[in-house]
Design goal:
Number of strands: 9
Low-confidence stretches: 1-23
Mean pLDDT: 93
CATH topology of the largest domain: D-Maltodextrin-Binding Protein, domain 2
Strand content: 5-15%
Helix content: 40-55%
Radius of gyration: 25 Å
CATH superfamily of the largest domain: Periplasmic binding protein-like II
Number of helices: 19
Structural class: alpha/beta
Number of domains: 2
Length: about 425
């Protein structure tokens, strides 16, 4: 009898201990399109957080990038989405916030670590509310084969005149294709072409905001001249560049057959894994020596809170940690080329990543001109800029005609000062 009572007492004590608040655990699920990051989250990010917060378990549950937007929208509508949501920049996430599916994080502890520009991609149009914690941005410029440059006794250019003189010298030598870029997929022509060199013409944020406000037009010189410069690229892109895809261009460079690659910093890890030569980088050349330089420092990914999550406080605890320098350093070194947006010092280990991120100290940052507000209508300015940039490089459309067509398309639906609702894409 006494034995039975003792067993019962032990059982009750064990049950009480297991159900006590001290041992209670909350599980948070993260939705993301970055399925290539799975190991990084499981092996580095999540263990670092859970070590400090043993009462919160985190599960990273990615979806294929091409399926993410539609899958996430369906889950949110059905009430089955995870607690935390990886946020695309601009309209896709703003549309979810407007539907009250993402929570307002403006007052979240840690948000003070980000500048207004860093939060632009995940804020309302007037900047009054922010709904995702900025995680990383990508920078644009040019990567080059250091061995090829040494062989040809050439140096990275600083001005456009030096840039084209360099291309002429590489072409004249004949060993390397001067520029590794094709126009078949179109988006590269705009993203690594027009949006790469353009900010030095339209003066970054000054011009971008003036375009939104209707104070500038795409037919103005500051917006047309980048097309004029792109029109000169064709002879340096190699034979058959019109049929060259994005992977073709990557291979051309990493196999050592091209000297320069108009780049996004996201290429760092892939290129360094594939190339057997040292890679350097240089800024988009300015028009004249001494000009202020501008760089496309484009927001890429953030993390938001599902407004319907039953675990709001635990999720906010995780998000505040994502807003910390500790997270920024882990993520930046696990994914070199995806640079922290936090306004705090972060130590990077990758030499090429350090070389590129140092541009932030030299130049004024801006974001891609078509991403905020101006691509919400039809025709879509972002997609139209892809086509225009490719056509100009191919020589099938003049810079003036391209600029006029883009402005006409924008005028057909956009009226500066009038609110335009964001659309999920």
């Amino acid at each position: 009898m006494k034995t039975s009572m003792l067993k019962a007492t032990v059982a009750l004590a064990t049950l009480a201990a297991l159900s006590s608040p001290a041992l209670a655990q909350t599980t948070l699920t993260i939705e993301s399109w970055r399925n290539d990051d799975l190991a990084t989250w499981q092996e580095k990010i999540i263990p670092a957080f859970e070590a400090k917060h043993p009462d919160i378990k985190v599960v990273f549950s990615p979806t294929a990038p091409t399926e993410y937007n539609s899958a996430l929208s369906a889950k949110l509508d059905a009430g089955s989405a995870g607690d935390l949501v990886a946020c695309r920049p601009f309209d896709a996430s703003l549309a979810l916030y407007d539907k009250k599916q993402l929570a307002d994080l403006s007052a979240l502890p840690g948000m003070e670590n980000f500048s207004a520009v860093a939060k632009t991609a995940w804020s309302t149009d007037d900047g009054s509310q922010t709904f995702c914690v900025p995680m990383a941005a990508v920078l644009h410029g040019f990567m080059y084969n250091k061995a090829a440059f040494a062989e040809l006794s050439v140096q990275p250019p600083k001005t456009e005149a030096e840039f084209f003189a360099l291309l002429d010298k590489i072409k004249e030598n004949g060993t390397y294709v001067p520029l590794a870029m094709g126009t078949k997929d179109q988006w590269e022509a705009a993203t690594m072409g027009y949006q790469n060199i353009g900010p030095n013409y339209w003066k970054g944020e000054e011009g971008r905001k003036a375009l939104i406000e209707g104070k500038q037009k795409l037919t103005d010189a500051d917006w047309e001249k980048p097309f004029e410069t792109l029109a000169k690229w064709g002879p340096y892109l190699g034979d058959g560049f019109e049929a060259q895809t994005y992977p073709d261009s990557q291979n051309l460079f990493t196999l050592g057959r091209a000297a320069i690659y108009p780049a996004g910093s996201w290429e760092i890890a892939t290129f360094e894994a594939q190339a057997d030569f040292e890679i350097g980088a240089f800024l988009p050349p300015v028009q004249n020596a001494g000009d202020t330089c501008y760089i496309s420092d484009h927001p890429d990914i953030a993390l938001g809170l599902n407004a319907a999550s039953p675990n709001q406080e635990a999720a906010k605890t995780f998000l505040s940690w994502v807003a910390s320098p500790e997270f920024a350093e882990i993520y930046a070194n696990a994914a070199p080329g995806f640079f922290p947006l936090i306004d705090k010092p972060v130590t990077l280990e990758n030499a090429l990543a350090k070389e590129i991120v140092a541009w932030r100290e030299q130049c004024q940052p801006t974001i891609r001109s078509t991403y905020q507000i101006l691509s919400r209508g039809t025709p879509n300015l972002e997609n139209e800029t892809w086509t225009a940039s490719a056509n100009v490089i191919n020589g099938t459309e003049t810079p003036q005609a391209a600029a006029e067509k883009l402005q006409k398309g924008l005028d057909s639906w956009y009226k500066p000062g009038e609110a335009v609702p964001a659309k999920a894409n």
